[in-house]
Amino acid sequence: MNTTKLTLLCKASTLLASGALLLALANGCSSTKPAQCPAPWPAARLLPPNQPDPNWLDHDRDRPQPPVVTPATASTQAEPGKPPSDAVVLFDGKDISQWCSMDGSPTKWITRDGYMECVRGSGYVRTLQNFGDCQLHVEWATPVPPHGEGQGRGNSGVFLGLDRYEVQVLDSYHAKTYADGSAGAIYGQYPPLVNVCRPPGEWQTYDIIYTAPRFDSDRKLVSPARETVFQNGVLIQNNVTLTGPTSWLERAPYQPHPEKQPISLQDHGNPVRFRNIWVRELGKPGKKEFTLPNTLLDSYVGKYGSVDITREGDQLVARVGGVRFLLFAESPTKFFAKTTDVQIEFPGGDHAKPERLIWSVGEGANEAKRGK
Ligand code: MG
Predict the structure, then answer these.
(1) For residue 55, with 0-12 CB atoms within 10 Å meaning exposed, 13-18 middle and 19 or more buried, which class applies?
(2) Superfamily grouping for domain 88-281
(3) Whole-number pLDDT of residue 30
(4) What average pLDDT does range 173-184 have in this prediction?
(5) Gap from CA of 259 to ligand 1 centroid (Å)
(6) Measured in angstroms, how far is the CA atom of residue 241 from the centroid of ligand 1?
(7) Can you give the residue ranges of every domain in the chain?
(8) Is the omega angle on the peptide bond into residue 145 within 30 degrees of 0, that is, cis?
(9) Confidence (pLDDT) at 46
(10) Distance (Å) of CA 79 to CA 74, 113, 114
(11) How far is the CA of 236 from the centre of ligand 1 (A)?
């Protein structure tokens, strides 16, 4: 229980105990300070059940103020705008270091004149960092003069959840394809509400609000992915519920995955351009998470004293005292678990097979050498 909640409960319980609650409420009072705080009352006994947040009274003076953020500035065709002050900048027009190929190797997409451009056959690009619930801003332009028809005309895509959930990028300006595959579609599931496309070659914006799907410890779906999308400032997807990963020809079912995953951009064989990409995380505050190349993860696999490191998919797993912990990367050499405060570091790692690790559970630090 946080300090503010405890204070609140103390206030209310003291007022109740003194029989002064009604009088205090009648006077609009919520700041009476108790001389002595009895054991806190359950919040449900004090606040109406329809309270939007059971931690706070209406107009509670102790409720924290929202953080101050400098807003984004609008882009023009000539110049990209500035991201809001609390955004993670993923691409500023020059630095592509936040992106890599899907296997973690350097991407072959090119960067020039303030944009990055898909190179046919080079594969998707993905972010190094993982993101769950977020607000994502992406600007894109399809080739001019346009080439091809239907799905072959300026095709790319913005994916959340690594490569699972695509918002279609396509030249849909006076160009027809199946509705659930046109620009702004949640591919194969939901056409955009309207076609608000600009001509090929012009910069267009997507502002995507993404809620990641949740899975329980039995790997069952708890809540599906949802997306809201604005294209060029116009709402085109209104909090739609995804049926599963977006896919061609089939209705693919959900497969469990960690909440935070990389964001990726599609190579569909067309030289689509991107600029001014930024993201704001909306989930609970926490450590940054990254998806590391499997080749690097494999260099950490081994037995280090009582700690056993293996790889499952694109994550490391630690067995400490025989208990299994799924590890998340906060840097190329540092990992943490989410169920218990387990931290593991491979000093001198990052592309060199380390001979030891440092591990801790809740406190201290222990060194363990790699077994022969
Ligand atoms: Mg696509």
Answers:
(1) middle
(2) Exo-inulinase; domain 1 (2.60.120.560)
(3) 38
(4) 98
(5) 23
(6) 19
(7) 1-65, 88-281, 294-369
(8) yes
(9) 64
(10) 9, 11, 9
(11) 17
